[in-house]
Amino acid sequence: MALSFLALGSSAARADSIGYQEVVELTAKSTALRVEHHHDWSDKTRPARFKMMTTGEDPFGVANTFSTLRVLDNKSGAELFRRPVPALTYLWIDPASKYIVGVSQVKRDNPYHLVVFNKKGERLLERSLLGTRWPETFESVTNWIYWYKQPSPRIELVEGETTAVLSVEDRAGVMRSVEFPLTRPSEALSAAPVNP
Description:
The protein is mostly beta strands. The chain has 1 helix and 15 strands. The strands form 4 sheets. A 4-stranded antiparallel sheet has the order 2-3-4-5, with no helix packed on it.
């Protein structure tokens, strides 16, 4: 299956004066969940990030100690799961508190810009948005990929029997959609386009 987030060609790149080095804390809440994200892109984590990017580009592995997603029960405070993830810049929880969506505009040492987890901690989707050619979408040379509406995109998730459709608002206000399976197969995940 292919993805409507993918596009032909590459977008124009803009220069960065300095490499991305932020330490970020994000939080999102629903009636049932509290989601916390931390990533540390400071010089302190540069060797570990370099190793990750040169040995498989897998930010979901245990070697990633510099970027995490933590999900808690909002009432009891009990931790439901904690996972290594790419650097995220926006978090969203669906109204039923069943799915957690993370989006990112960080390009440096960050191979994925869209992730979906269910509340059990299963990763259902991960996608790179590098090279996307939508109106008003652009990348800097090393640091950024500006693809979603700032500061907070409209996000929708429609659940079917075996798949769900996730839609994220791009910088031009267009909802970009992707369909993904609700259970992760043991082999590599693929996603089907819903709209171009």
